[in-house]
Design a protein that fits this description.
The protein contains 4 helices and no strands. The protein is an all-alpha fold and about 100 residues long.
Length: about 100
């Protein structure tokens, strides 16, 4: 990678990590609001509920941000598929005879 592209790549990474953390906040809010698997009531009744919410948000944010960045990077790939089927020539069907296992002995 050339050094002049690095600031653009870092900006791209930070932008999509921020998008991932926003999506994570929405996701965690929906989990707590809908009380999925009883997490909302469990966290509300716990004395370390704030830590649990932070950890849910943080770890989901790292996952969602990584996925956002990976999608963008893979979408930027150039199509270098230059192999054509013309160089192989025409395909000719071949008849193959199969034997059962009991026929071999």
């Amino acid at each position: 990678m050339r050094p002049e592209n690095e600031p653009d790549l870092m900006r791209l990474y930070l932008r999509h990590c921020a998008i991932g953390f926003v999506l994570s906040a929405v996701f965690v809010a929906l989990i707590l609001w809908r009380d999925v698997a009883g997490l909302g009531s469990l966290i509300a009744g716990s004395d370390i509920g704030v830590l649990a919410v932070f950890l849910l948000w943080f770890f989901h944010g790292t996952i969602f941000g990584s996925v956002q960045f990976a999608i963008v990077v893979m979408a930027q790939a150039k199509d270098d598929d230059d192999d054509d089927d013309d160089f192989r020539g025409p395909l000719i069907p071949v008849h193959a005879h199969a034997q059962r296992q009991s026929d071999r002995t």
